[in-house]
Amino acid sequence: MRWSSAAIALASAKSFVVALDPVSALGNKFFNKDGSQFFIKGIAYQLRPTDPLVDTDQCERDAKLMTELGTNTIRVYHVDPSADHDGCMKAFDDAGIYVLADLDTFDTYIIPENNYWNKTKFERYAEVLDTFQKYDNLLGVFVGNENIATKDDSPTAPYLKAAARDMKAYRDAQGYRDIPIGYSAADILQLRPMLQDYLTCGGNSSETVDFFSLNSYSWCDPSTYTESTYDQLELYAKNFPVPIFLSETGCIVPGPRAWDDQDAIFGPQMVNDWSGAIIYEWIQEENSYGIITYAPAGQPAGPDVEGGFLRKGTPTPKQPDFSALKSKWATNTPAGVHKSDYNPSKVSTRACPTSTAGGWWQVNGDVDLPTLGQILAVNTRTHSAEVATETETATETVVSVTASDGAVVATTMAITAPPSTATDGSSSATTSGPSSATTTSGGSTDKRITSFGAGVVGAVLALAILL
């Protein structure tokens, strides 16, 4: 039987798929190659702790359903730079889906309780960038995820900024395209405004992040723009100097999720300053945030089972969450601004935040950033600081910080050590999901660490203390 020309074209459609062009950042917008503005409609996608982008068949199944949903971006939290990702990256590229990837691996997370940014971490971040830079559908990379989440964590900020500085320098030295490099923050009211300003302040673009994103669960349906405090998120994002978006969202209390926050994000209230949102998360697991399942909960132990949940197979939409999100994204289609009509000089770089006595933000102004292997003692009273060089074995370094009047105002005993890996390969980082820290932006009380992350946090922090 002869096929019609239409049938032949349909059967061969996949071979004619047009590859995605890289997305670029300018001012506080993302732009497609044709100059149209790019808005993120994303899904957090991790399936397995170490790398979700190694099973081509599974990626193809998931990408197909994601396309039906209206997804154009996924976020992955941990990847193995030594693995082959060609199949999965092509599967998502063919489906019109970009990838945002975290650079840290399970043993390179920047831990507030043991701050350092050293050659080993740099090299591990570089391995991830080397592996993924060749894919045009790599939208961007994160240097960290919720590293700063409690009152005493803000001294970690210079290390995150140093990581962004060094990875941008490495990217440029290697001749890679300008892949956006940014940070994903916990939504902590006492920290968020200062952190987003700090990571973009100072006037030196080589030291600032290319985008800032936020994990926020403050909109819990039924809610409103003001009740959820999204109006406050918009206030702090107004004319922000780099693209800003929600890197996690999707409160499940009380449920089901109606996704009304998407109307605000892509509507006139926020669309001029925000670049979209990533929904947490794709797969249903113990925390109940998933929008698909591969099988009912309580599966027996097996190679593709984690925590009683199957992580492989044909994805089945979880209702009504899946259909509700599909409907929202189908109607949320902002045109944005064309690159040729956009004037980035209208966005504002804010002043570096200053510390206050007893406050949550302890980094005073535009402090010097640590270089590789340095332990920075941040002076919260002046802009000066002294630095100790990190050694390759655990040592004790006394760092005295002197105020402008010559008085010693702080003496820090810095315990330094090279990176180490727990025997189970775990990390202090939560794999993904709502922060375990308390958000004061007025929303969800359901702030649980995911099943992947909860078990590893204590182990690695204990290891850090022992070192």
UniProtKB/TrEMBL annotation:
Spell out the Low complexity composition-biased ranges: 417-444
Task: Indicate where this protein resides in the cell.
Answer: Cell membrane
Which keywords has UniProt assigned to this entry? Answer: Glycoprotein, GPI-anchor, Hydrolase, Lipoprotein, Membrane, Signal, Transferase
Report the record's Gene Ontology biological process terms. fungal-type cell wall (1->3)-beta-D-glucan biosynthetic process; fungal-type cell wall organization
Q: Which domain of life is it from?
A: Eukaryota
Q: How does it sit in the membrane?
A: Lipid-anchor; GPI-anchor
Q: What is this protein called?
A: 1,3-beta-glucanosyltransferase
